[in-house]
Amino acid sequence: MNYAPLYVLDERLESRPVDLSWWRSQINARTVVMTMTAFKVAPIKPTISPDVLDKIDIRVGTIELVEDVEGSEKLVKLTVDFGDHKRSILVGMKQERENPKEIEGKQALFVVNLEPKRMMGQVSEGMLFDIGYADGIKPVLAVPENRVRSGARAG
Q1: Are 85 and 126 in contact (CB under 8 A)?
Q2: What is the CATH number of the domain that holds 70?
Q3: What distance in Å separates the CA atoms of residue 4 and residue 52, rounded to the nearest whole number?
Q4: Phi and psi, residue 66, nearest 5°
Q5: CB within 10 Å: which end of the chain, N or C, has fewer?
């Protein structure tokens, strides 16, 4: 969000800009607190066996490029490095972030053994894990605690 600069006159009758970043952070912090207090935890899904979980291949990928998907109001195309190969993964985050390109260079968790899916004339070769979308809150990436090699497995 862009704000117009605020200027004040100090005791020397000089005009100087005021740094409002602290106030903005307080407004954002209060918004987060208000959002978190209204949050209702979803019920836990039915139990699955470890064998089912073992079938899901979750890997760390480094997001190299975020591109617009022409004609889509939601989709962006991620080019993701998995160490020994790269994949294109379509993600519906265009309306969730002011600037989807801000995730370029970040690592995240991806499901890499889903069947490829065609959307808007392009093929998605995996799924990005995010946190929050299913609960109606602003999504964030599921990321490793520290930087790891692209292609490292989770689980």
Answers
A1: no
A2: 2.40.50.140
A3: 54
A4: -120, 120
A5: N
| Residue 117 belongs to a domain | yes
Indicate the DSSP class of residue 130: E
Q: What is the pLDDT of residues 10-59, one digit of tens each?
A: 444 455 565 666 556 555 555 554 445 567 889 999 999 999 999 999 99
Q: Are residues 11 and 78 in the same domain?
A: no
The pTM of this model reads: 0.74
Q: Where are the alpha helices (DSSP H) in 44-153?
A: 50-54
SS3 category, 102: helix
Six-digit token string for 122: 């392009």
Q: What are phi and psi of 104, to 5 degrees?
A: -60, 135
Q: 56 and 95 share a domain?
A: yes
Q: Does residue 124 lie in a domain region?
A: yes
Domain that holds residue 76: 50-141
